[in-house]
Each structure stands twice: as C-alpha cells, then as structure tokens.
Amino acid sequence: xxxxxxxxxxxxLLAAGCILLYWALQNHKTLMDLINWVTGLLRPxxxxxxxxxxLNVPMRAFEKLxxxxxxxxxxxxxxxxxxxxxxxxxVALVLGLVIPQLGTTVTQIGNQLPLFWASAQQWVSDLMDxxxxxxxxxxxxxxxxxxxxxxxxxKKATEWITTGGVAILGGTINAASDVMSGVFDFFVSFxxxxxxxxxxxxxxxxxxxxxxxxxxxPRADRVVEVAGLAHRTFSKFISGQCTEAxxxxxxxAVAMTLCRMPYxxxxxxxxxxxxxxxxxxxxIGCGVGAFLILVDDPIQALWFVVLFLCLQQIxxxxxxxxxxxxxxxxxxxxxxxxxxxxxxxxxxxxxxxxIPLASVCYSLLRATTHARLRSRGIDYRTLFPGSGxxxxxxxxxxxxKK
Length: 402
Description:
Elements: H1 5-26, H2 28-65, H3 72-130, H4 132-146, H5 150-198, H6 200-214, H7 217-258, H8 264-274, H9 282-296, H10 298-328, H11 332-375, H12 395-401
Helix pairs in contact: 2-3, 2-5, 7-8, 7-10, 7-11, 8-9, 9-10, 10-11
C-alpha cells in the first residue's frame, strides 16, 4: 500500500473511530448522560424547528392565496397570522366541544352513583340470602379482620404519613418545576419557530453557503438533493395526514348519523383531531366517545365500539395506506411497517417521523438500485416474473459473444 497523504489520513480516521468506539462501549452510561444533556439543551430548538416545519405547509398555501401586489414582508406576516389564528381556532373548537361535554358526563355519573350503590347493596343482600355458606365465610373473614392489632397499624400508618408527606412535597415541587420548565421551553420553541418562518430563505442560503464552503461540490450537491427530497416528502406527509383525518371524521359523522347515535359532531371532531396520530390515534377518540355514550345507553356504547372497529379496519388497511402512502410515494405495506416500527421505538413521535423517513430511504434506495442496474446494462422491467423477456447479458458475456 502506498503511504500517501490520503492513505495516512484514512488510517488515522479509522484508528480514531476505533478508539472512540472502544471508549463508548466502556463508558456507555457516561455517553448516554452526555447525549441526554445535549438533547436537553437542544430540545427547545428542535421542537421549534418541528413547529416551524409543520406551520410552513399551510403558511405557503396562505401566501399563494394572498394578493401578489402585497409586499413580501407583509404577505409573510399576514400568512403567519392567519395560520396561528387557524391553529388556535381548531384547538379551541375541539376543547370547547370536548371539555364541557366531559364535565356534564362526569356530573351525570356522580348523580347516578347513589342509585348504583343502593342497587349494589340490594344485589349483595339477595346474594347472601341465596347462598348462606358464602355469607358465613364472609362473616368469618370479617371477624379475622377485627382481630388486627390496630395500635401497630396506626403506628405504621403514622410513620408512612410522616415519610410519605416529605416525598409528596418533593414530588409536588418537582412537578411544579417541570411545568415551569415546559412552559419556558414552549415559549422559546415558539419564538424560534417564528424566527425560522420569517427568515427561512436567508437561513436556507446561509446553510447552503456553509455546506459548499466546507464540503466537496459533489457531496454538497448530493446533500442538497436529499434535503430537498426530505422536505417535499415531509410536507406531503403532513398534507396527507390532515386529509386522512378529515376523511375519517366524515366517515364517523355519516355512520353515527345513520345509526342514530348521540354526540355525532363532538365525537367526529374528536376522532378527526386524534387521527392526526398515524393509524392508532383514533383509538383515543374512541375511548372518549364510548365513555360519553355509555352514560346515555350502555348498549349503544357497545355498538359504537363495534362501529369504530369496523371503520378503523377500513381506514387502517385501505384509506390510510393509499392516502398517506401515495402522498409520500411509499407503498402501503411499508406504511404499515413504518408505523409499527416507529411506534415500537419512539411512540407517537416515532409514528409521525418514521413514515416520511422511510419514504426518503425508499426513494434513495430505489434511485440507487436503478442506477446500478443501468450501469450493468440491465433493464429492470425485464426482471419481473412472467414477463417472458430475459434480461440482457452482462457486458463481459456480450464481449465474449462478439
């Protein structure tokens, strides 16, 4: 091997990588603490970037609808204001529909508890009269419970309250601190998102300048190409997710109206809102909807669950893969696989991120595969089973034939 500068640099990088890998394996706890510390510092900015990316999709649509004669700065500010008003209106609509109805339902349950308790007491009394042996065994158990050393029990309870009170106080302080930290992080994230949306063109230009200044031209071009693909894919995913949520909410509105179920508007809006979480989000709306209907009619609540399971199967296996999958260019089977893997790894956030990420990887792998087939002189269309057309021979075999 010729020891030129490039070879020496490659060997040095490999040695440094091996040393870092060995250190990471030996000090994995320290490495995880360091990663968590860095993630905690960057969390507000990462959340702000995510908020800006999501709001950028409707903001661009508003900018296209506004008159072109307006100054770019005013058009951008007005579009951002309209997006924020729309988001606040949607959240207020959902909360305004759900919270009062939940309060009414809880009040109804509280009013029905005395009747339930009286009927439960009557049922227990009838049960004891029907089964005397059960009543005798229960009385014997209660007699054993009365033989408890209550002095020791009171002493242990006092000790638990003394130690537990400190723990509860500490937990309350920690909870209050977490709430304040969360509010501060959200404020910083929101401000950062607004800055990104107002200066996105300048930030994009600065990022390209840094990339082309410190990376070779071919690699920089490739990074820009992949970044553009990721941006288009994530934008289409957000649009497809919103479209799918509207379709699912409309399906529930029509089905519940035909079945003459209560709370049609409330449950439909709630399911459409929670359906923004891929595939499994609508189950949250199902739980709340079943709870609301349960107070009025338990049998109808059971039929609502059956209706939900039927519509969920249609949505999860037919509508969602085709609407979202076609918007991001990902086949239906890989949409389901991406949701399953993402949910197992990172929960709801993993579901939201994994579908467009899988679409980007799928597009890159497909382009690379086609390029390698073309470099080998193979037409991929001749490789499908049953086509009856064998693929062209490799270049070496073609040379031998000549």
